[in-house]
Amino acid sequence: MEHRYLGNSGFKVPALGFGAGTFGGQGPLFSAWGNTDVDGARRIVDICLEAGVSLFDTADVYSSGASESILGRAVKGRRDKVILSTKLSLRAGDGPNDVGSSRHHLVTATEAALRRLGTDYIDLLQLHAFDAMTPVEQVLGTLDDLVRAGKVRLIGVSNFSGWQLMKSLAASDRLGLSRYVANQTYYSLVGRDYEWELMPLGIDQGVGAIVWSPLGWGRLTGKVRRGQPLPAGSRLHETAGFAPPVEEERLYRVVDAMDQVAEETGKTLPQSALNWLLQRPTVASVLIGARDEIQLRQNLGALGWQLTDEQVARLDAASAVTPPYPYYPYWNGQFAERSPVAV
After folding, report:
1. 3-338 domain in CATH 3.20.20.100?
2. Catalytic-role residue among 62, 186, 187, 194
3. pTM higher than 0.85, yes or no?
4. Contacts of residue 233, Cβ cutoff 8 Å, sequence gap at least 6
């Protein structure tokens, strides 16, 4: 297993991590993702650790906390062998303060996550969304207290815009508080918005990307095809309304290019999509999910080989979109050499 630094933290994570959103199966969204129980989760953890996948990511809202509880029971007795990552700040209860990043909610939600995970520390704690009603100084001060108390090792964010993340990083630097080192972000061949602002920010500020939904919310499995109905077993029947949007013709153009690459490499479409991501700047770890052992082992096949430069260029071209101003190079490339990244 390849290991990479998580931003400027000095801490290494495996290139592939496991997303435990399939654990629990409660609620309309997560029941469609999967319903892995404790025994199934232990088997998945066994396979992951055998392959060197030691990072396991969850959140307090996944199956109303059941995902954290099942993951905690699955890693019991081998806490020292795993990296536990969880997220909080989305609504996790009916009370007026059961949401957001206030000091009250961050402390309460962290203590609850520790109990469910069955551990006394969280390796990586991430805010699941930006809270515009709580000053970033208060948010970061609370997170810094949790780090100093030994309850959290590293902090990160998820679903932040560029200005929200940069405002927070600037406050950390100004006040001498713990800094975000991870950005758990949506990124795939059919979702490349991350490249416009957040990737250059990550390069400049030393924030590593942990990628969620690397197969474009299940659209890049090879089961979604031009002119064919959605397969009966696709989770998109239940979850499409939650998914980031993709223009249909662009999706089919990407799948056509992936078919060509898969034929040349002898790899599956998901393996090619994951391998493409692993070659992108700032990407520290890509979260894979699986409903069963077969899916998990197939996804692990994204490692141990590499797309050629020509194949990467072909996938880049098929998945390219014109960024909005000011990310579109309206200067016709005259300033491109002064940019932190060219994608």
Report:
1. yes
2. 62
3. yes
4. none
